[in-house]
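Take a sample.
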Amino acid sequence: MEDKLDLNPSIVDELWARAVAGGMLRFARTAGAEEMAARVDSEAVRVLSEIKQALDDPSLDDPACFYRIDAIVDAFYRAGLSTRRHQDCE
């Protein structure tokens, strides 16, 4: 079940949110936009390479392509990306 957005956050929640946002902003400014863009691009290429590898892997051949889809879902999870694929299958 998804958490509902709290329309009345506590003062502690608001202070935490401000502190986290400020820390992330300082980090982004320190790292620089170009470096952050390069990291994102690099990660995207890595994930796409893993997906292509799964699609081209003859050992993952089954009629419903379950093994290929499972390998792609695993690539997403390793990259910290979410998908509801496994939730739908379980």
